[in-house]
Structure formats: structure tokens, C-alpha cells
Amino acid sequence: MHLVGAAQALHWFDIPAFFAEARRVAVVKGVIAVWCYDLPEVTPPVDDLVRRFYTETVGPFWPPERRLVETQYRTITFPFAEFSVPAFHIEQSLTLAEFTGYARTWSATRRYLVARGHDPVDRLLEELALHWRDAAERRPVRWRLAVRAGRTGSGAVQA
Fold first, then answer.
1. Is the pLDDT of residue 156 over 70?
2. Model confidence over 42-95: pLDDT tens digits?
3. Long-range contact list for 57-64, CB < 8 A, 24+ apart?
4. Average pLDDT over residues 7-28
5. Which of 22, 38, 127, 148 is the most buried (most CB within 10 A)?
6. CATH architecture of the domain with range 3-151
7. Hey, which residues does 88 pair with through a beta bridge?
8. Could you tell me the residue ranges of all domains in the chain?
9. According to the 3-state scheme, what is the secondary structure of 77-99?
């Protein structure tokens, strides 16, 4: 295999086992790439509300693995000959309902709902509506990707 990749998932894996399997199936000098994204960016007022929701409202409900995303996988020992990649991002135009629907998919949001018995996104929706002008308006939402990429074989650290 010339490329082994994991998108927004490495933090859920048995990481040493994943890297061992990636090394096993990859060709010599094959690429191993893992990437994640953090909080979406819309506008500074929206971003501030989302950051507060993320840290204060649902923050206590994030599983410990989420910290690996927050550090952009930089705290993980990456046993490959690492190389830099250009900056990447995901961008999508979303309505307010689609944007808050995305926040409802977060594992911490779902855990909050189970623990507290009500949807915390309802309050976020009310707050965001003050800054979204028209709820049906599609606005560009950007997620910056954090990528770690390396090659197997020469220069790679054996784990």
C-alpha cells in the first residue's frame, strides 16, 4: 500500500497497534498520514460562542482522547520519517441549522445530553442566531487540518 491514512480518527485507535499495522501493509517509503481538525471558524463573534460552548458547556464531557486532537496529534510519538505538508483546510457553506446540527454530533454534546437530560445546543442556537442574521443564510465554515505525515523505511523510527 502506498498510502495509509486516518482522518479525525487516530485518537480513537490503539495507536501503537495502528502504526505497527500501517508499517506492515505499507510499501517501503510508503506514506503514513494522519490528520484531524479542531473547532470550526465562521466569524470572531460566532467563534467565541462556539469556543465557550466547547470548553465550558460540554468541556467536562469530552473523553480524554480529545486532548490528542487539541494538541493536533503533536503529543503522539510518530515513528515515521516525518515531512511537512502544505496547509490544508475544509470549507463548507452551512446554514445555522446545519452548523448547530454539526455541534450535536460531537461526542461531548451527546454525553452532556445523556447526563443532563437536555440538549445543550438549543441554547447555543439561540446565541448564534444573534450573529447569523438570517438562519437560512449559508455561511462559509472553515476547519483547519493538522496533518502529520511520514514515510516508512529509511529514516523511520522503529517502534
1. no
2. 999 999 999 999 999 999 999 999 999 999 999 999 999 999 999 999 999 999
3. 57/112, 57/120, 57/123, 57/124, 58/106, 58/108, 58/109, 58/111, 58/112, 58/120, 59/108, 61/107, 61/108, 61/109, 61/111, 61/112, 61/115, 62/107, 62/108, 63/107, 63/108, 63/111
4. 95
5. 22
6. 3-Layer(aba) Sandwich (3.40)
7. 145
8. 3-151
9. CCCCEEECCCCEEEEEEECHHHH
Query: Do 109 and 66 touch, CB atoms closer than 8 A?
Result: no
| 155 close to 81: Cβ distance less than 8 angstroms | yes
Q: Mind giving me the DSSP string for the chain?
A: --EEEEES-GGGS-HHHHHHHHHHHSPTT-EEEEEEE-S-BS-HHHHHHHHHIIIIISGGGS-TTHHHHHTTTTTS---SEEE----EEEEEEE-HHHHHHHHHTSHHHHHHHHHHSS-THHHHHHHHHTTSSSTT--EEEEEEEEEEEEESSTTPPP-
Cell of 20: 505497527
Q: Which residues of 116-138 are buried (b: 16+ CB within 10 A; e: fewer)?
A: eeebbbeebbebbeebbeeeeee
